[in-house]
Design brief:
The chain contains two helices and 20 strands.
Length: 175
């Protein structure tokens, strides 16, 4: 069983904590956040985000929606110390490739030969069709639909409900 500390406890952080608690292979030790929230779903606050150094012996998941800040923190804790969290209702084809520290939300579908970089967020009910590429630190909000062969460049955010047609390369946020 992997022991993990969640970094971030805002709206996205609460969703990630809930998903992590559904995973029998993870033990959520606590979370780090700068808010004064003491407890989320029975998981205790261990300190502020700046306290990361005190917990070097643990693995981390960075539950922060801001792509640049997530990238900064990922580099600080080192990619190899990140854990991917996948909600049990997600469907992920067996031939995809996924980096470290990703979050795959409830009812997500990721189809054949898609590739996900490090610290990607694919939120609730999004669909990533076959042969898509999501580069490091990109973020699909909820109910995003990527047609087949779409490429999402590094640190790009796609807002809720967006439909991205087949074969496009997305280099800037879609809001």
């Amino acid at each position: 069983m992997e022991k993990v500390i969640i970094i971030g406890a805002g709206g996205h952080g609460r969703v990630v904590i809930d998903s992590a608690l559904c995973n029998p292979n993870l033990e959520v030790i606590g979370f780090l956040d700068d808010m004064n929230t003491e407890n989320i779903l029975g998981v205790p606050r261990l300190g502020k985000i700046s306290d990361i150094e005190k917990f070097k012996e643990f693995k981390f998941h960075i539950a922060i929606g801001d792509n640049s800040f997530r990238k900064e923190l990922s580099e600080k804790v080192k990619i190899e110390n990140l854990i991917t969290i996948i909600h049990p209702t997600a469907y992920i084809c067996s031939d995809i490739k996924m980096g470290k520290g990703c979050f795959i939300g409830a009812n997500v579908v990721i189809n054949s030969k898609s590739r996900l970089g490090n610290s990607i967020i694919v939120n609730t009910s999004s669909i990533v069709e076959h042969d898509c590429i999501l580069e490091n630190y990109s973020h699909l909000s909820y109910r995003v639909l990527l047609g087949s062969g779409v490429t999402i460049k590094e640190e790009v955010y796609i807002d809720m409900g967006e439909v991205v047609k087949r074969g496009l390369i997305i280099e800037r946020d879609i809001r």
